[in-house]
Amino acid sequence: MSIEFIGYIAGHHSSEIHPQVGPVLQPEYVEKVARAHEEAGFDRALVAFHSNSPDSTLIASHAASVTKKLQFLIAHRPGFAAPTLAARQFATLDTFNGGRTAVHIITGGDDKELRGDGSYIGKDERYARTDEYLTVLRQEWTADKPFDFKGEYYQFEGAHSAVKTAKPIPLYFGGSSDAAIAVAGKHADVYALWGETYEQVREVVARVRAEAAKHGRQVRFSLSLRPILAATEDQAWARAERILEQAKEVAAQKGVVRKEPANEGSKRLLAAAAQGSRLDKRLWTGVAGLLGAKGNSTSLVGTAEQVAEALVDYYDLGITTFLIRGFDPLEDAIDYGRTLIPLTRQLIAQREAQVA
Question: Which of 78, 81, 158, 225 is 20 to 30 A from 356 via CA?
């Protein structure tokens, strides 16, 4: 089975070890990072969504205008635009960029952040709303005539999109609660995990597959990691320790205090971190443990060859998409293109040839 590499495009240069300098949206930076990902051989690039961030769809549109092959994964939170309208927006964008659009559905687990956009319902209700939202979204994309819909959260009469895409827009899906996995099994084309241990990944893949089977569906799986590479293993671990110290300094400058997370995905990462900072072959939880596992924050540490081998281990567990970004965002993306991405593709091709 073919694999996919997804990178990350932010509106400005920053990370846990690089404080933001300048405005939150810098078009020149977006252009530079988009071109770098395309040249590095990434299949897609994620554009994130937060309640206070620039619009992810418009960033992806601009990035598409300066690239030719790079595809995009646009993070999107259901509930703040009508699903009929969102469906037409994504279909329009996909037509303009030549079929390079995918949508990453993030329902959201932080009540405080969601209130910033006016959502006050609880987590299980949010996923029930997402279920209806995605049902309408798909129907708007595919229906050849107007349709009606009546649910608890949405009601439409004569809904219809005149714009259609040449091929279906893939839906990626994040969320680790029981309610989230139930919705993922029903709707997701790709279910996204953060960088967990082999045991945790094996468990979640089995759960999502079981939910998808209830609907006669099959789901692919994505894993998000922050690879830390160097010429030797010792140098890579030394670099990881430097990154941890830099992250401590930046957190102190910002006055960041670790808080227990509200979302299940972060709780799972912290459960892994509680087992130790180095797990399995080379999974490192240092930054996740420091900052409370805010998002994608665990790493694979080693040489490019060693990290590629660890990615193959995850491939054997059912992972076919790797969402990778570095603590030095632009420089690491370029480096991954030189070493990690081609090595991983080569190892998995060899594995598939042996199986065949």
Answer: 225
The first and second tokens of residue 33, run together, are 């990072």
Q: Locate 191 and state its tokens.
A: 């279910």
Tell me the two tokens of residue 350: 């060899």
pLDDT digits (tens, 9 = 90+) for 91-145: 999 999 999 999 999 998 777 778 887 777 788 899 999 999 999 999 999 999 9
Q: CA-to-CA distance for 226 and 314, rounded, in angstroms?
A: 14
What CA–CA distances, in Å, run from 126 to 95, 153, 162, 292?
30, 10, 29, 23
Q: Are strands 101-106 and 299-302 parallel, antiparallel or unpaired?
A: unpaired
**CA triple 116-121-123, angle to 5 deg:** 100
**Residue ranges covered by each domain of the chain:** 4-226+304-355
Residue 354's pLDDT is 85
pLDDT at 1: 66
Torsion 329-332-336-340 (CA) sign: negative
Distance CA 7, CA 329 (A): 9
* Res 98: pLDDT: 97
Model pLDDT for residues 237-251, shown as the tens digit of each residue: 999 999 999 999 999
Q: Bridge partners of 71?
A: 44
- Judged against a pLDDT cut of 90, whether residue 267 lies above it is answered with no
Block residue for tokens 């009546």? 150
Give the number of other Cβ atoms within 10 Å of residue 202's Cβ. Answer: 15
Query: Torsion-angle region of residue 169: left (phi > 0), alpha (psi -120 to 50) or beta?
Result: beta
Has residue 53 got a pLDDT over 80? yes
Rounded to the nearest 5 degrees, what angle is found at the Cα of 26, between the Cα atoms of 20 and 28?
125
Q: Which two tokens stand for residue 249?
A: 């300094």
Q: How far is CA 229 from CA 6, 126, 305, in A?
A: 17, 39, 9
